[in-house]
Amino acid sequence: MITKVLGLVAATALTSFSLLGVNTAAAENVELRIATLAPSGSPWMIVLDKSAAEIKDKTAGRVSIKYFEGGQQGDERDAIRKIKLGQLDGAAVTAIGLSMIDESIRVLELPMMFNTVEEVDYVADKMWPYFQDKFEKKGFKLNDRGEVGWAYFLSKSKVESVSDLKGQKLWQWGDDRLVGAMFKKLGLNGVPLGVPEVDSSLTSGRITACYGSPVAAVALQWYSKVKFMTSMPMSYGIGATVISLETVKKVSAEDQKTVAAIGKAGSKKLRKVIRKANEDAKSTMTRKGVTIVQSPPALVDEFTKNALEVHKQLVGTLYSQKELDMVLKYRDEFRAKNKK
Q1: What CA–CA distances, in Å, run from 320 to 281, 311, 313, 331?
Q2: Cα–Cα distance measured from residue 120 to residue 132, given in angstroms and rounded to the nearest whole number
Q3: What b/e sequence results for 99-136 when a residue is b if at least 16 CB atoms lie within 10 Å of its CB, and e otherwise?
Q4: Does residue 64 contact residue 55 with C-beta atoms inside 8 Å?
Q5: Which single residue of 21, 143, 239, 245 has CA 20 to 30 Å from 305?
Q6: CA 178 → CA 108, 161, 191, distances in Å?
Q7: 3-class SS at 182?
Q8: Is the pLDDT of residue 11 over 90?
Q9: What pLDDT is recorded for position 43?
Q10: What number of other Cβ atoms are within 10 A of residue 14's Cβ?
Q11: DSSP letters of 49-89?
């Protein structure tokens, strides 16, 4: 659900670049124009920029990447629209951006579905080839999985119950149907906004609460406008870089292999970096005055109960029964293998 967290949740996602799997004729130098919400200097951009420099070096400049970071091209919906119009070649996005191509991928971000990051990794790794195939049929190359992290509620007043949340003017990422369904189920007051609008809206009081991963909250400066964060994570945010297949065709088969190898290594590193950055961001937030409120069992139980109902409710509208069954199968498979 709330994994949008940033949107960047922007971040977002975000992930490495890989073109493996498409055979094309050799081409001249190709500059890939890629948009992202991730701010300059953020953990996402540090990893992405390093991979981009390596790609340019290893392909002798035949493939280069120009990132439009920090939402320069608008929100993730804008970025995907511009790719379809040929104005951009790709985007490093969260699952919100990915859902603009195929909404069913949000089944990996269902609220209260996972207990550990190891469960997330196991299920997502099992299902990623399935989604890559779906994206390719829609004209996009879905690259290796990126990372946003656990999403928490951030608020100006303490949240210890669903009733407390109902009293908040709570950010909702645009017309996100997953978050919208959860908010409706809980009776929450969602205020639809794009990620670039959240910071100013927290400042003006248009909203009094939002949700996101700690590293996103710090990178986007949301944390400086709130006083509290729940200890309960509501969902786990993922992301990825997507590239138009029309752009892929401009890159030679040899360079695709080079880019794929660098991208795969970069994606693995990114997940590791973001996980550490999220822990570091928690420390930064608490040091700067944000209090992490221990979520009472009653809040967790109520969220879980309603989330399970939303999981079933969205079958046939956001994702198929088959896709939900796949997530449950792999999650339960992991739990059975890792019983203590």
Answers
A1: 36, 11, 11, 17
A2: 17
A3: bbbbbbbbbbbbbbbbeebebbebbbebbbeebbebbe
A4: yes
A5: 239
A6: 11, 21, 14
A7: helix
A8: no
A9: 86
A10: 35
A11: HHHHHHHHHHTTTSEEEEEE-TTTT-SHHHHHHHHHTTS-S
Q: Where are the beta strands (DSSP E) in the chain?
A: 30-36, 63-68, 90-94, 140-155, 170-173, 190-193, 209-212, 228-230, 235-244, 291-293
Q: Does residue 44 sit in helix, strand or coil? A: helix
| CA–CA separation, 16 and 22 (whole Å) | 17
Average pLDDT, the chain: 90
Q: Does domain 2-337 have CATH number 3.40.50.2000?
A: no
Residue 20 has a pLDDT of 41
3-class secondary structure, 109 = helix
The model's pLDDT over 192-212, given as tens digits with 9 standing for 90+, comes to: 999 889 999 999 999 999 999
Residue 97 has pLDDT above 70, yes or no: yes
Three-class SS string for 272-323? HHHHHHHHHHHHHHHHCCCEEECCCHHHHHHHHHHHHHHHHHCECCCECHHH
Amino acid, single-letter form, for residue 274: I
Q: For 225-249, what is the mean pLDDT?
A: 95
